[in-house]
Amino acid sequence: KPDADNQNHAFRNKQFKKSRPCNVCHQPIHHQGSVCRVCKFVCHKTCETKAEAKTLPERSKANHKKATNRYMDTSWLIHQQWQEEEIKTFPSVAEYRPSTPESSEEPIYAHTNDASSRPISKPKQTMLTAVNNRKPSRSREHSMDLSYVTERIIALWFPPEVSAATFRQGQQQAAHMLHSKHGNSYMVFNLSEPRRAVRSQHERVRELGWPPDLAPPLERLCSVCKDIDFWLSGDSHRIAVLHAKGNRERIGVVVAAYLHYSNICCNADQALDRFAMKKFLDDKIGDLDQPSHRRYLDYFSGLLSRNIRINAAPLYLTHVTVLGSPSFDETEGSGCRAFLKIYEGLVPVYTSGIHTVNGDTKQFTVNVAGDRRRGLQLRGDILLKCYHRHFTNEASSSTSTSPTRSCSSPGDLIPPRELIFSCQFHTCAVADYTLSFTRQELDSAWNDLRFPLDGAVELHFSPNPEGVRFPPPAPTPAVPVDLSP
User: Fold this and answer.
1) SMART domains from the entry (predicted)?
2) Is residue 310 one of the residues assigned to a domain?
3) pLDDT greater than 50 at residue 344
4) Does residue 390 share a domain with residue 269?
5) Fewest Cβ atoms nearer than 10 Å: which of 40, 192, 368, 479?
6) Quick one: pLDDT band at residue 118, thresholds 50, 70, 90?
7) How many Cα neighbours within 13 Å face the side chain of 200?
């Protein structure tokens, strides 16, 4: 109305089917408001006093400024009232977060299906942050990860580049969470190297680790599954925590092995746990990249299903043939200066001479038996490594016997040796006297373009030390051999 501001309004409550703008604060009116019986003046219930103040005949500038401030305050009160009503109707995730100490640099990510083990983060956060942080982002790949594999199996993983202080703090956070939820009914199965920070924070720790960048020994894989099953079968409240630092595939190999173990040795009541383990492998681990990991899982599955017959007799290695010419020699443009190292149970048992391979060489053979015509006896877990010897630092290079070490000094600009390929196998699964590995079955070479795409490695065995098979692999006289690597 044109002269509405000069009237004394007679307000009554009214329910609005559609939103109407308030004539005082100009904010929309939802559902219930006030309307004048005479001039149909519409406003909020809280704006009635301001509408009556506008009808005064005389108003100073100070009163006008005061009314403006009241208008702003009223709009903010209405906005706050709407926000409170929405929060009461739809509770936020922040209302259900457990209270934790504020000294937390690295958050702990738990299973998203478990309401009592949601992400533990800093307490002072907004509701929007709590909702968006339910799924881990790529930036969290460099922090600790705690996930539920099943209801009774937990995976605790730390990245390799985490500092010692952050690692200790993460162990404290994990121990606090595990103890508060499961008491003393959990055991940590450490799949990495033994660490004091793990033993000091957890009451029960089982050391089952193996060297980095290698597949677990077959006996170790069997003992891990038996230990986990023995611990869980002792009490229905017990929890198994798989702990690893470094490569996440350590946990993936153990979970996949225990999945095969439960398919054969456990009852049908654990079908839901097997489904949860498969989902964990798909979501957290993915496909295993290292070929030796996949090979040892096939060994383990074949032994459980009795598809692989155990060969307890030793094998005698006579020759190793490398098909193709790896391109590791930068000075020559192609080729390499290759030598082999063979480990039995991580103990070095053989080192060959240096074979100078040109880029035109199609294959070269290492005569392991030598002039004695006697094969190298092997039994159990075998590790074969092929290195390229650089020209530099030859005089100061060390003949290190560690299967995981590739250079003699970390300060060298150019390491004295560089890994070309490696492979792990177990003699119990070798049924023929020739064992072949393609490029996709060789560690380090499967994703290295310097190794030929059609390259392969063949191992030739003999049934006894004196009975070298004839004819042996064709020699390669064009490849010079240096017997002092």
Assistant:
1) PTEN_C2
2) no
3) yes
4) no
5) 40
6) very low
7) 10
